[in-house]
Amino acid sequence: MDQNIQDLLRPLESVQDAMSRPSVRRSLENNLLDVSAWELMRIIESENMQVIAPRKLLQVLLGDNPDLGDIDIVEKQDSAQMETLDNSIVLLQVA
Question: Residue 28: which domain range?
C-alpha cells in the first residue's frame, strides 16, 4: 500500500512517465476541464448580456457616459452646499 502511494506521489520525469501512470493518464485524457471551461464561459457571457442595460443606466445616472456629453442629471455640489441642504431638511422636518 505504501509503495502505491509513493509511486503516485513521485514527480513526473517525462511525458512517457505521465502516460504510464493510470491516474495521470486518466486526468490528461479526460475532457471534463474543457467542458467545464466552456460551460463557465457560456455562463459569463449570459451574465454579461444581462448586466448591459443596468450598466448603461448607471453610466447615464452617474454622468460617465461619453456619448451623452455634459448632461447633469444629478447636480454636483460641494460639501458646503450639501451641508446647507442637509441642515435645511432637518429644519423643515422639525417644523
Answer: 2-94
